[in-house]
Write a structure and sequence with these properties.
single chain, 24% helix, 7 helices, alpha+beta
């Protein structure tokens, strides 16, 4: 094989990246999405090229950590290798190259990623002092409960324009620092349609943010964010599930694979469990103490934390 070159990507590469995405996913990723996500202050990406053709891509989105003020999270997104060049260690080499550059530029950062089963087999990278699986999630939905009824757009009238709750604390629910500015930047300044619903439990109010996407022949709401008390998360999710069933609105969300009372609730109420499991992995350039690692394992991740469910075209 001819020499493969690895480098940090620049805006001049965007058209070639778009062609790579289409060849891999049969989806036309938009120039606007790539520019905003990876070529502004909030992101960085790296490519593998052969004969001036881009055959590999990996992107990282920078996020503030909720663990402490000194650490930065690099959330890995949109990894892909051209089908013709797989199983040649190009993906492993591309990630190793990217991690080497990131370690120099962001010494105190750590990386979170959503590997699939194949991804987990990639050999441990020697640049990392710790690599741990934080969580494992099912994608589940309520389609079975509502007999796969199509989503009636008119039913979205019950969802209001997003109006983020004011003066929110920094909830320790997430490893990512999700304050008011975080939600505004991600969900209010976009032309993409997001939907919000507020529900109540006793004197408490909580809010959910959704994105609407098509899956096969059905439109479904994907639960991107939960905004509310950490203590009420399980109760809020149960209330939401019952509410969506009552209104016959199909929706999907992430649920930790642990066999707890929330898992049993959805099993009992005929939720459909997708067979695919999403692994959330954290990789650290600096050695971390066991108690630190145990604390971040308690974090909850949602669909909005990855780009798998975003509208990128």
């Amino acid at each position: 094989m001819k020499l493969i070159r690895y480098k940090k990507s620049q805006k001049i590469d965007i058209e070639k990246i778009i062609r790579l995405f289409f060849s891999v996913f049969k989806i036309t990723i938009s120039k606007k999405y790539l520019t905003e996500t990876y070529f502004g202050e909030g992101g960085v990406c790296y490519i593998a090229s052969l004969d001036k053709k881009i055959i590999g891509f990996v992107g990282f989105v920078k996020k503030k950590s909720n663990i402490n003020n000194n650490s930065l999270i690099l959330s890995r997104h949109s990894s892909c290798i051209h089908k013709k060049y797989r199983r040649k260690k190009i993906y492993t080499n591309l990630c190793t190259f990217a991690y080497g550059k990131l370690k120099i530029q962001y010494r105190k950062c750590f990386i979170i990623s959503w590997p699939n089963q194949v991804n987990l087999k990639v050999p441990k990278n020697t640049l990392f002092k710790n690599e741990i699986i934080l969580s494992k999630y099912y994608q589940i939905d309520n389609y079975k409960k509502i007999d796969y009824e199509k989503l009636d757009i008119k039913k979205l009238n019950i969802f209001k324009k997003i109006n983020i709750l004011r003066n929110k604390e920094k909830y320790s629910l997430s490893i990512i620092d999700k304050n008011t500015n975080y939600y505004k930047k991600r969900y209010l300044n976009k032309k993409i349609n997001y939907y919000s619903i507020k529900l109540f439990y006793k004197d408490n109010q909580f809010e959910f943010i959704f994105n609407k996407k098509k899956y096969q022949n059905y439109s479904s709401l994907y639960l991107f964010e939960y905004i509310g008390s950490k203590k009420l998360y399980k109760i809020a999710l149960k209330i939401l599930y019952n509410y969506m069933n009552y209104k016959k609105i199909p929706f999907s969300f992430w649920l930790n694979t642990k066999k707890n009372d929330l898992y049993l609730f959805f099993k009992y109420n005929n939720a459909s469990f997708n067979n695919e499991i999403f692994f959330v992995k954290a990789s650290f350039f600096q050695k971390k103490k066991k108690n630190f690692l145990n604390n971040i394992k308690k974090s909850i991740f949602v669909m909005g934390d990855t780009d798998v469910y975003k509208n990128i075209n």
